[in-house]
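Supplementary notes for students who missed Thursday's class. We covered one full example, reproduced here. Read the sequence, then the structure, then the short commentary at the end.
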Amino acid sequence: MIIQNRIKKRLANINQFAKSKNRTKTKAIHRFRLEVKKLEAYLELLDLQKNCMLQQEIPDRLVKLYHEAGKGRKFSLELDAVRTMSRDQAFSKPEVFMDWLLSSKKKTNHKLAKKSRALHNLKVKGLVKYPNTRISHHEWHRFLVNRADCMLELLALDLLTDLHSIHQLRKLIKSVLYIQPLIEKPSAVYSFIESRKDFLKQAESKIGSLHDHAFFLEDLEKMPGWEQSPECTTLEKIKKGWQENIESLKEDIQKLFPEVQQFALELKK
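Structure (token representation):
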């Protein structure tokens, strides 16, 4: 398979985001980050094909833009989560905390604009010397086996006590989903991943929610003097609600681990 056109599409969408006036919008950020994740998976696959001659991994300036965009997205999600909890539990919105979040989001948007200007048009040739090289069956098979092995290594750990490791598991699951469309059809591997796609999306979504809620808690505790603020009682309710959500998500995710393990074992075959 030749994936040059797919890489070109990812880069075109990334370049478009960097120039867009809507780059601070949550949906635009989500689409941009998805493009970067797909590009990363494609380059990791190409790196297995020695005659492709990968020039470099994801450029550092793109990595910085990706992370800054992620911060902006999480601030937006956190503001939505505060509004939702305030409405559902019928207490007043913590205006001081929300203003602090909005201020943090504005600072992030400013950095996002600056980093976007630093991202010059990315081109395939800047990443891969021979992008027309055909990816062999052997190489994408190696890619999938590597992902399965890494999943099994992580699942042998106490993942729920280590958010970084559980986030790595999510990235592995997503990379399999990103590469699946590149696999020849019909094939047993393609059909197998297709049959487990809904489950994989459910697993990575729950891990993503866990990661977001951990960020929310971390953010709340970063606000200067929140424990002495007039909104302290409200913020304690919000903190407790997020902690309960985290525990509930951990229980749900724990139940999914055996099936993720079984998926990885079957993928190796």
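Commentary. The mean pLDDT is 91. Residues 232-268 form the longest helix (37 residues). If anything here is unclear, bring it to office hours.
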